[in-house]
Model the fold of this input.
Amino acid sequence: MDPQGPHAVIERALDLPPSRLPARASLFLDFDGTLVDLIDRPDAVQVTDRVRALVAALCARLEGRLAIVTGRDAGFVREKLGMSYLGIAGSHGQEIHFPDGTTEIPEAPAALGEAGDALTQYAAAHEGVLVERKPLGVALHYRMAPHLEGWSLALAEELATAHGLHLQPGKMMVELRAPGGDKGSAVARILDTPPFAGTVPIMLGDDLTDEPGFAAAAAHGGWGVLVGPLRQTSARYRLEGVQHVLAWLDGVLDT
Done:
C-alpha cells in the first residue's frame, strides 16, 4: 500500500487518540512495537501479565471485537497471550484465525523454503543476523548487525526477484513472503465476519507494514493510530510508544 494514498498525511502533527471509543468500535492491535517492545532477538520477546490482562479485559468489554494483526506467526502470538478465543491475523495478515476457531491459511509456495534456506546460510556466516521462519514468510533481522543492512536488503531483493516472492521491509529487518494479502486485507476480511461486522475499526501499529491496516480502518469509517516517531502515515492519531499504548488502552477501559 502506498502511504501517499487518499488517506495519507505527510508528517503533520498528530493528536492523541480519544479514550472514549465510538459506539460499536472494534480494535485491531499490532504486536511488536505496539503491545510489546522491540528487542534484538524476536524469539525472546516477553509478554507481561499486565498486557495479557489488558487484552483480555478489552476483548470482554468489546464483546469479542478485538483482534491482533501482526507480522508474527499467529500461533506464536496466541501462545504468548494465552487466549485461545482471540482473533489473530498473522504473517502480515495472510493467515487469519477467527475467534470461533476457523482459519483461512493459504498454502505456502515451495520457493519460500528455498529462499529461507539461502537466508539461513547467509545468517550463519554473519554474526548478529537472525532468521525467523513463519508459515507464509521468512524474515531476516539485522538489528544486532546494522552495518549489514545494505548487504541484507540486497540479498533479500535478489531472492524475491528470483523466487517470485513479495519483499516486505520493516524496522531493522526485511521479510520475504508469499504474494497476496497484507494487514489491510486482513482487517477488511475480519470486518466481514461477526462480531466485527458493522463496527467502527481502530487500528494501532508502529511499522510501515501497518499502513495498509490504517487505510483499511479509514475506508471502513474508523481510524489508525501510529505508534512511535512521527512519519508519513495514513494514521489519524499518534502515541509515543508501547507504554503510552498500554496507558491509552487502560483509559479506554476506564471510560
